[in-house]
Write a structure and sequence with these properties.
By secondary structure, this protein is an alpha/beta fold. The chain has eleven helices and twelve strands.
């Protein structure tokens, strides 16, 4: 890994994307203080994470690994009790009760962890991650293997973390999940190749386009648009797609079409999928 530098702010969800072997889990482990970078540094509240400070600073971090990592022979409550004591929480029973209630698993507190479904194990693991009330939450493939309902519930929990002003770093291959929750996207390919909002990345890579649906065939309006300096035009039947820039705005385009006699039914911004953005970034030369 090389040149991976970024900041994570309170109340922000950043998605960490990249192919297998790109360094996502390694990055999370370095940020969590589990391993130390061979060069560069990790700063937490302006304090450098070192072998000497890692144990103390990790108290501010909650880390959900890809595998839940529960003690399968212990009950749900016993699993959480152990971590409450490891974090030296002053009132461990109250903290555990609060997490059981928050994640809707109070009725499963006496169940043995090894007998839980994948979705319930993830709930317990996330409860354990937040048990000590961390300000930074690192999530490694949190919805991997979950059924749609469990994945939906977990997304809601992640969004709740943002509302609670936690800083969340989410590593995932689920681009639909990223589009639903992420404020910014970081793409790794052993180095950081992009870091921005999904909207800004779409605009940078593909530009801005708008689709206008007309009452009749759109081809007759192309020459009129071209005469007005609107040249990035694609036509398909009664639909016309136009590239926007600082000189070509939606308002100007609509005005020009009306002047040419077009009857407009709808004006719809075109948006490339996050998958398109991701694949284009991976195609760019190193």
């Amino acid at each position: 890994m090389d040149d991976v530098s970024f900041e994570l702010s309170p109340g922000e969800i950043v998605a960490l994307l990249g192919p297998n072997g790109a360094g996502k889990t390694t990055t999370l482990r370095m940020l969590g203080g589990l391993i130390h970078p061979t060069s560069g540094s990790v700063l937490l509240d302006q304090q450098i994470v070192t072998a000497a400070t890692a144990s103390r600073l990790r108290a501010s971090i909650g880390f959900l690994t890809e595998a839940p990592g529960l003690w399968e022979r212990l009950t749900v409550r016993q699993n959480l009790d152990v971590y409450a004591r490891l974090h030296a929480i002053a009132t461990p029973r109250l903290a555990v009760d609060r997490m059981l209630d928050l994640f809707g698993i109070s009725d499963r507190a006496r169940d043995v962890a090894g007998e839980l479904s994948k979705g319930l194990k993830q709930r317990v693991a996330l409860a354990r991650t937040l048990l000590h009330d961390p300000s930074i939450v690192l999530l490694d493939e949190p919805t991997a293997g979950l059924d749609p309902q469990s994945a939906h519930d977990l997304r809601d929990l992640v969004l709740r973390m943002r509302d609670e002003r936690r800083a969340v770093l989410l590593s995932t291959h689920n681009l639909d999940e990223v589009d639903r929750v992420a404020d910014r996207v970081a793409v790794l390919r052993t180095r950081l190749v992009a870091l921005d909002t999904p909207t800004a990345l779409r605009t940078r890579l593909f530009g801005r386009r708008v689709r206008v649906e007309l009452a009749r065939d759109a081809a007759s309006h192309v020459s009129f648009l071209s005469a007005g300096g609107i040249n990035d035009v694609k036509v398909h039947g009664a639909v016309i797609s136009v590239g926007l820039n600082e000189h070509v705005t939606i308002a100007g385009l609509v005005r020009r079409l009306i002047e040419s006699g077009a009857a407009i039914h709808a004006v719809i911004p075109e948006e490339r999928s996050l998958e398109d953005v991701y694949l284009r970034l991976l195609e760019e030369p190193e």
